[in-house]
UniProtKB/TrEMBL annotation:
All copies of domain Peptidase S9 prolyl oligopeptidase catalytic, residue ranges: 480-681
Pfam families for this protein: Peptidase_S9, Peptidase_S9_N
Name used for this protein in its record: S9 family peptidase
InterPro entries xrefs: AB_hydrolase_fold, Pept_S9A_N, Peptidase_S9_cat, Peptidase_S9A, Prolyl_oligopep/macrocyclase
Keywords, ordered alphabetically: Hydrolase, Protease, Serine protease
Gene Ontology terms: cellular component: cytosol
Top-level taxonomic group: Bacteria
Domain Peptidase S9A N-terminal span(s) in chain numbering: 15-230
Annotated Gene3D superfamilies: alpha/beta hydrolase, Prolyl oligopeptidase, N-terminal domain
GO BP annotations listed: proteolysis
Protease is among the record's keywords: yes
């Protein structure tokens, strides 16, 4: 019997499963419903319900850390638990927050709002402005990226009658003044780019129909997006406008208080942060200015007014090394904070500009090893006194939330997250695998000490968009994998940002295939070291990691026992035509260009599935409300694999956006379904590890 394996590499557009791209199509939803029933019947049941409830209870614990941002003198927080699954927006004071059981004032009960309005609301964003009691809230349906905009009064704790409101669209707004919004939204005829994001920045004045809002700048539909941000840290209010050419390149414009707009003479691949009369930027390529050439990933600082007057006398604030790279930068009270990974160890430096030059100090008293994230306590830079928050953790140590008063004082522990799993006898170790081309690929292993050759291993990675993955404390894996005898491994693949631009560039475009080779090399290294064997390795990846997992299926099936592929990107022939796909061309390439399809087709697993192979079992899961990565990717891959006779399972809940569920219980159920599948397919019974 001949097996229909369309679409194929020789006929990539002959796709019999296009009907599954109709998100709400009757035939497509029938497919989803049947698949969900099969998957839940096979991997649901009492064990699933028990683990889901255990995990949901951890996510709903009253002693979890409530992460806050300060607006004026108030600390704001969104809190979810079993009684408030959609969340409470609430506020308190720093003095109260320091207490073991702070008193909170509720501003908005999102569950009550959803019930009153009969909508599947979640709260995506809150935009306030200093000195005002008004906010713009962004409720979304089911956690989607598209949001509505609604004006809210923090005094009356209610939506403003006849206030600013906007129907569902991708984008948002910022306050220019009490009666004017800086609108960067795809809402309206001709207002969306081909990626589905805003192509204009508009001034929307109170009482004005949005269709009449003045367009102050626009970009062409083929660009990714454009957006504006109000800035009141200077002597006069101003607006920064970012025209996103593609995912990694953008032009920067500055609009002054008089409304004049100036394009800054800067390279396009930069990270830029400004405060008052200073700005700093990280380069993405080598750049020559003022007769001097600066290397990729260098951070430069200069006076903004001097720059606008023609000066190119930059100060060098950070220089990279092969395994030392900047991860981020931000301002707090006139000080620039640099977040650095040095051989994957967290480092933070503070640079302070003055007329005499830039001074430098190192953020003190933070751990040498582990994960450390630092950010400003204040939501608005103009209100910052320099207070910073730090989150410190590692795979066996839950988070501590620290306050660094004015950025330099010794850290004070504000909150300690609960220990949610037993870690007795577990160790964290760092290793390196050698990839196919000789590159060293780091990975972190957490589990029992010693090698048995048969450990049940859960592997994960990302490897894309310059994002560094870090070994965080993970309650779900800790409780349901480590505590029961398993081992977890997190790999740092090329395509990520762990070692800067060269590491990212090595794993994007044609190099994406190398990123996948890196993951396979880590799996092989676990076997080489005697940790486990291939049939006991379970691997999971989501979003960009969906390309990774499906390539393990078709390129390295012999190295894995089971695969869990979530909210995935898979079909690299049509990805640019589906939802936000066009915005990722800079990461993957354009399949409509013959020369770029040549490399894209090497990792489009949807086209590379072959009959008669020994593929490991796979569960592919997505959500219907994911309006970033189209659910059609997951649906089509599952359908094609099943039609070819492979063991492929599928799951798609109705809500969740580009995530695992709209509340803690749904998120727990999504994860546990994957764990139950992986454990069964690698032949692991809980506790036997």
């Amino acid at each position: 019997m001949t097996i229909d394996d369309r679409p194929t590499l020789s006929a990539p557009d002959d796709d019999p499963f296009l009907w599954l791209e109709e998100i709400e199509g009757t035939q497509a939803l029938d497919f989803v419903e049947r698949q969900n029933q099969l998957t839940l019947t096979a991997f649901g049941g009492k064990a699933f319900e028990h683990d889901r409830d255990v995990l949901a209870a951890i996510y709903d614990r009253p002693d979890n850390i409530p992460y806050v941002s300060r607006r004026g003198n108030e600390l704001h927080n969104i809190w979810k638990d079993a009684a408030n699954p959609r969340g409470l927006w609430r506020r308190t004071t720093l003095t109260e927050f320091r207490k073991a059981a702070p008193a909170w004032e509720t501003l908005l009960d999102i569950d009550k709002l959803a019930a009153q309005e009969g909508e599947d609301w979640l709260l995506s964003a809150i935009v306030t402005t200093p000195g005002s009691s008004r906010a713009i809230l962004s409720p979304s349906r089911g956690g989607s990226d598209a949001v509505t905009l609604r004006e809210f009064d923090l005094v009356t704790k209610s939506f403003v009658a006849d206030g600013f409101t906007l129907p569902e669209a991708k984008g948002g707004a910022d306050w220019l003044d009490a009666d004017t919004l800086l609108l960067s939204s795809a809402h309206g005829e001709g207002m969306a780019t081909s990626s589905g994001y805003a192509r204009t920045v508009r001034l929307w004045r109170r009482g004005q129909p949005v269709e009449q809002a003045e367009v102050i700048i626009e970009t062409t539909p083929d660009r990714m997006m454009i957006y504006g941000m109000a800035d009141d840290t200077g002597p006069e209010p101003r607006v920064w406008i970012v025209e996103q050419i593609d995912f990694f390149n953008h032009a920067v414009w500055l609009r002054d208080a008089a409304g004049s707009i100036t394009k800054l003479d800067l390279p396009t691949g930069i990270w830029l942060q400004a405060h008052g009369d200073w700005f700093a930027m990280k380069l993405r390529t080598d750049w020559t200015a003022g007769g001097r050439t600066y290397a990729t990933d260098t951070v430069l600082g200069i006076s903004l007014s001097a720059f606008l007057n023609g000066s190119r006398d930059f100060a060098v604030l950070f220089e990279p090394a092969p395994r030392r790279a900047l991860q981020g930068l931000f301002w707090a009270a006139g000080k620039l904070v640099l977040s650095i990974l040095d051989e994957l160890r967290p480092r933070f430096e503070i640079c302070t500009p003055s007329a005499a030059g830039w001074s430098r100090e190192t953020l003190p008293a933070l751990p040498e090893i582990g994960v450390v994230d630092v950010w400003p306590l204040d939501r608005h830079p103009s209100e910052s006194n320099g207070d910073l928050l730090a989150n410190v953790q590692d795979p066996l140590t839950p988070s501590s939330l620290l306050l660094l008063a004015r950025g330099v004082a010794s850290p004070v522990v504000l909150k300690q997250a609960p220990k949610t799993f037993t870690s007795d006898g577990l160790v964290v170790t760092q290793h390196e695998a050698i990839s196919i081309d000789g590159e060293r690929i780091p990975y972190v292993q957490t589990g029992p000490e010693g090698e048995t050759g048969d450990a049940p291993v859960y592997m994960s990675a990302y490897g894309g968009f310059g994002l560094a993955v870090k070994p965080y404390y993970n309650s779900s894996l800790g409780k349901l994998w480590l505590e029961r005898g398993g081992t977890i491994v997190q790999a740092n693949l090329r395509g990520g940002g762990e070692f800067g631009t060269r590491w990212h560039d090595a794993g994007r475009l044609a190099g994406k295939k190398l990123s996948h080779d890196d993951f396979a090399a880590v799996a092989a290294d676990l076997v080489r070291r005697g940790v486990t064997n291939a049939r006991r390795i379970a691997a999971q990846g989501g979003s960009n990691g969906g390309i990774l997992i499906t390539n393990m299926l078709v390129r390295y099936p012999e190295r894995f026992g089971a695969l869990f592929c979530t909210i995935p990107l898979i079909d690299m022939r049509r990805y640019t035509k589906l939802l936000a796909g066009a915005s990722w061309i800079a990461e993957y390439g354009d399949p409509d260009k013959a020369e770029e399809w040549e490399w894209l087709k090497t990792y489009s697993a949807y086209h590379n599935v072959k009959a008669g192979q020994s593929y490991p079992p796979i569960l592919i899961a997505t959500t219907r409300r994911d309006d970033r990565v189209h659910p059609g990717h997951a649906r089509k891959m599952a359908a094609k694999l099943q039609a070819m006779g492979y063991e492929a399972w599928f799951y798609e809940p109705a809500a969740g956006g580009h995530g695992y569920g709209k509340d803690n219980r749904e998120r727990a159920g999504f994860e546990v379904l994957g764990f139950r599948f992986l454990k069964e397919k690698i032949g692991w019974k809980d506790g036997e590890g």
